[in-house]
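Running low. Any example?
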Amino acid sequence: MAKLIWTDEAIACLRAIRDYIAKNSEEASFRVANGIYKKSEILQNFPQLGYLHDTGDEGEIRVLIYGHYRIVYIYDDQVVHVVGVYHGAMNANGKY
């Protein structure tokens, strides 16, 4: 079983998503944020489930999809570091 670690940046991304959705629906914001987190927990048992985006010095950079969101993580030596969560409509600079 791999260890799952959420970076501070990934937590900030998840909070931003939750806060944005909460402007319209508190219930939906909780459902989406919880769904993203629960989806990431699968990586503890299946760390290579997401598609391989790149291989860097720090390990395999992988992406797991949840609805319209991309959960970006680095997998190396039985440790999964979630580094960010991004909406599919965002560009590389984090803008829509």
